[in-house]
Amino acid sequence: LLKTSLEGIAYNDTKQKIKAMAVKPFAYLYRNILDRKDLFTAVFNIKPHKEELDPSLKQMNWMETRKYADQIGALESKSNPYGIEDGYFNKKIKQKLKQRQGYLKNDAYDQSPEYEDLQIVLDLLKQSGAKPLFISVPVKGSWYDYAGFPKERRELYYKKVHAQVKQAGYQIADFSN
């Protein structure tokens, strides 16, 4: 719904505008559901969980902070060799670990409809005059290797996203390696 509605706004094309008009009633219904959810959250004072930050972090420089983060990450991912947080790994992955080996071997991220979605976002940002900074975050390489999605294909994905963002004239902070 959102994609179709945004395409109707972003592109001056009759076909896109007709599609946007067709989904408009469903978009309003969905928006009403979200409004009710927001009202429920406000009435019952439901707040998102926020972790307490360690106050000593404010005293650290970048290298110290990075070293500290590496230590915390190692402490919180002792149950597996993939660097995945223990709670998540034990609850969601451990029971199916053997089934997950090589499960991404036939996947490729060089062709995906998500690139079109990204282009819509880039076009809307340009249209609004925004100047965002995109951040490219790494995936867990050892996990993706186990799952059958090798580094070469991951790098192809990173390059494609970087090129698309840069072609739109935006900066990208690359933490992918």
Distance between the termini: 35 Å
Number of E-type strands: 2
Q: What is the rounded Rg?
A: 21 Å
Nearest-integer average pLDDT: 88
Strand/helix succession? HHHHHHEHHE
Percent helix, as a range, is: 55-70%
Strand content: under 5%
Category by helix and strand content: mainly alpha
Silhouette: globular
Query: Can you count the helices?
Result: 8
Model description:
The protein contains eight helices and two strands, in the order ααααααβααβ. By secondary structure, the protein is mainly α. α1 crosses α2 and α1 crosses α6. It comes from Bacillus wiedmannii. InterPro entries: DltD (IPR006998), LTA_DltD (IPR023896). This is D-alanyl-lipoteichoic acid biosynthesis protein DltD. Pfam families: DltD.
List strands and helices in order, with pairings:
Layout lengths: L1 H9 L3 H30 L18 H14 L10 H8 L3 H4 L13 H15 L4 E4 L4 H6 L4 H17 L3 E4 L3
Helix pairs in contact: 1-2, 1-6
Quickly describe the structure.
The chain is mainly alpha-helical. 58% of the residues lie in helices and 5% in strands.
Keyword list:
single chain; 177 residues; mainly alpha; 3 domains; two-stranded parallel sheet; LTA_DltD; DltD; D-alanyl-lipoteichoic acid biosynthesis protein DltD
